[in-house]
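Morning!

This is the sequence you dropped in the shared folder:
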Amino acid sequence: MRKIRIVLTAIFSIFSAVGIATVLLGKAPATSLIVALAYIVTTMALYDKGGKPSKFVAYFTGCILSLGVIGSIYALILPLIGDSFEPLLFVSTLFIGLIGITTITHLKRQTRLV
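The structure's back. Tokens below.
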């Protein structure tokens, strides 16, 4: 369980660093900092810092990321409707969706232990 928290912390830290860097380079609007802040708060919630507001933001972020599983299901349905299979779409949305699901399950286990 500790290894999962370390891996999720690394992933969310990379996400927030990329978000802040793109804003500083001018490739994204300044409102994108809200998303980067949500990733930082999610990292805090994984370590029981920030109380209930950080847990709420972490659950919300996990739910939004878990919607990526729907994208992977769409990528599997594409060949059935006549389009070509997109492996990059499938793998990337599945990865993002699994990050969200893992975050939610880790937060639930964490609150159950307390």
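Headline: The helical segments are 2-24, 33-46, 51-66, 68-77, 87-113.

More detail when I'm at my desk.
O.
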